[in-house]
Amino acid sequence: MLKVLALPQHYSQQWRDYYQLTKPKVVALLVLTAWVGMMLAQPGLPQFGLMIAATLGIGLLSAAAAAMNHIVDQRIDAQMARTYNRPVARGRLSTQQAVKFSLLLAGTGFLLLFIAVNPLTAWLTLASLFGYAVVYTMFLKRATPQNIVIGGLAGAMPPLLGWTAMTAEVHAHALLLVMIIFTWTPPHFWALAIHRRDDYAKVNMPMLPVTHGIEFTKSAIFLYTLVLFLVCLLPYLVGMTGAVYLVGSTVLNLGFIWYAWQLKFNAKPETAMATFKFSIWHLMVLFLLLLLDHYWLISAL
């Protein structure tokens, strides 16, 4: 009787492990930026069925990339305080289970996008998975302190994927959204890398704070936030957005610059992690502002 009662708990834990394998919070932010790309791709509301299929397909392939990251990084994950409790690193899920799960997610997501959305979006999303799970995780991450700069392109793709899902074409405005995330990624990640510098040093991972020092990394973060401020002006300067976005993005970017300034010149033990957390809210609110501005402009016409 006790064994029968214990069985559901075992399955419940296993499903939680599979869920954790997908890095749901990271995927949620990626899907949000893809969803905003879908909305911005046309003046009215997107076709509901197409939007659902695209969201699911992009989400499944993003989750597959996250699972592959768990598989490739399981050895170093087991040695780092931030990641030692991940399912594969702790042995709660075997490598074989994780591989099967990631391939199932990737195959399902690709077929859904190819059949129900369009081939361009399917292939671009698969290329993004390859860029993150293979190019970044297997090679760049272990090879150069510029890993997150180069590899960040894969994580910056979702707005373009959302856009192509609705239009089946690559548009310059979608590339501006990619550029925003591409520029946002290094200061976002380096703030976390400063906080976890000793962890990365322990596993000989060439993150910027390990190879060039914390002070150099702080300077790089500050300079990137200045560049990000300028990049975020581009949608307004090309007529893609209006005043709502301009004002909102200016406030957000000044906030990011302030955090970077504090990190560089007035840092406390918690400043790096506070900067990292703010950067997440920065990107999320920035893309919601793009959406608000888009429909505000439409209603004003």
Short descriptors:
301 residues; mainly alpha; Tetracycline Repressor, domain 2; 14 helices; 81% helix; disordered N terminus
Major sheet: size, sense and barrel closure? none
Number of helices: 14
Q: Per the principal axes of the C-alpha atoms, what is the gross shape?
A: globular
CATH class of the largest domain: Mainly Alpha
Number of DSSP-assigned strands: 0
Q: Remind me, CATH topology of the largest domain?
A: Tetracycline Repressor, domain 2
Task: Tell me the CATH superfamily of the largest domain.
Answer: UbiA prenyltransferase
Can you characterise this structure?
Its EC number is 2.5.1.141. Keywords: Cell membrane, Heme biosynthesis, Membrane, Transferase, Transmembrane, Transmembrane helix. By secondary structure, this protein is mostly helical. The protein has two domains: 19-168, UbiA prenyltransferase (Tetracycline Repressor, domain 2, Orthogonal Bundle); 171-300. Helix content is 81%, strand content 0%. It is built from 14 helices and no strands. The protein has helices at 2-21, 24-40, 48-72, 74-77, 95-117, 119-143, 147-155, 158-167, 172-195, 197-202, 208-211, 214-237, 243-265, 271-300. Helix 2 (24-40) crosses helix 8, helix 7 (147-155) packs across helix 9 (172-195) and helix 8 runs antiparallel to helix 9 (172-195). The model is unreliable at 1-7 (pLDDT under 50).
